[in-house]
């Protein structure tokens, strides 16, 4: 989860993930939407692939990138569980503080 969160911390990578969410695209197609160099886009794609948020499929000499919906869903579920636990703890702490306040 940490690697995926680090990957998504960068706005360019979030935009790339959005571009490949519904449709496979080559690095060149992805790079057209950015004012950064193609090597920079390739580096971002490498980070997304390492975090398993994007997959690569080779078709002849072409490399096609696509969002890994399963990995994103798993990350979303992990985050939901994390927030549920911590929000429950926050709720319990707030209720305990309110209870102590009323007793004073």
Strand-helix topology:
Elements lengths: L1 H7 L2 H9 L5 E2 H5 L6 H13 L3 E6 L2 E6 L1 H35 L1
Antiparallel strand pairs: 1-3, 2-3
Q: From the alpha-carbon coordinates, what is the Rg to the nearest angstrom?
A: 20 Å
Measured by DSSP, the beta-strand proportion falls in: 5-15%
Query: Residue share in helices?
Result: 55-70%
User: What series of H and E elements makes up the topology?
Assistant: HHEHHEEH
Instruction: List the strand order in the largest sheet.
Output: 1-3-2
Distance between the termini: 43 Å
Number of strands: 3
How many helical elements?
Answer: 5
CATH topology: Arc Repressor Mutant, subunit A
Q: What's the number of domains?
A: 1
What are the segments in which pLDDT stays under 50 over at least 5 consecutive residues?
A: none
Description:
The protein starts with a helix and ends with a helix. Strand 2 (54-59) and strand 3 form a beta hairpin. The chain has helices at 2-8, 11-19, 27-31, 38-50, 69-103; strands at 25-26, 54-59, 62-67. It has a single domain (2-103), classed as Arc Repressor Mutant, subunit A (Orthogonal Bundle), CATH 1.10.10.10. The mean pLDDT is 90. It is of the alpha+beta class and 104 residues long.
Which labels suit this protein?
104 residues; Arc Repressor Mutant, subunit A; three-stranded antiparallel sheet; 3 strands; elongated
